[in-house]
Amino acid sequence: MVVTIAVWFLATGLVAWLDNLERRTFPRSLALAGIAGIGGLIAILATAQSVSVFAVYAGFIGALMVWAWHEISFLTGAVAGPRRTLCPAEATGWERFNAATATIIHHEIALAVTAVLLIALTWNAPNQIGAMVFSLLLVLRLSTKINIYLGVPNMSTDILPAHLHYLTSYFGPNHLTATLLATIGATLALAAWLGSAALGSVAGSADAVGASLLFAFAALGVLEHLFLALPFRDGALWGWALPRRQHLGSQ
User: pLDDT tens for residues 42-52?
Assistant: First the structure.
């Protein structure tokens, strides 16, 4: 679990740092992210037939590399959606939902296609950790986006690059919803189930490592949703990764 948290923390910080650099650096970041993403896919496929602990970790890292590729593509604005403007002030209901969806639909389709691809390529393989990790990240992130759209008590935008600031106009009002409470409960239940699976596996085995990695991400998902309800700013965790943005903001 310590490995998972450390990798998540560093990877998120790296993505935040790259996406808050000057826009002229984005082509280079996208190229490097693409290379990393392809490397991650190769790692997932190369270890899918192995049930060793090393193979599980390799598949896990590979899934994070593919995920980071998508995150950098989105946060640089390369793959987001056809709508890049503020939400109309008068938009409500279905009109507002359509407008909000149009800001991120290309990114969501890319994530869904990748998840289906990973599941299909590793179907019936003994080591499916790569597809599982990516799919879990997709579900947790989609849940977070839905809650933000409906409105949450605390929405920190410290990591969001300036060129994507228009997305904040699609955020819901600052209030606690039943959806957020239900989501926190569901992620807690998922984390408890995965934790039970990890404890029920043979210590040190590939099954135990895989279940522990999934449990750690589910637990981080619980934490991410709790942050939406509590007065906590993500800049407190990743402020070290945003020096360029802070510098530009001070000019």
Answer: 999 999 999 99
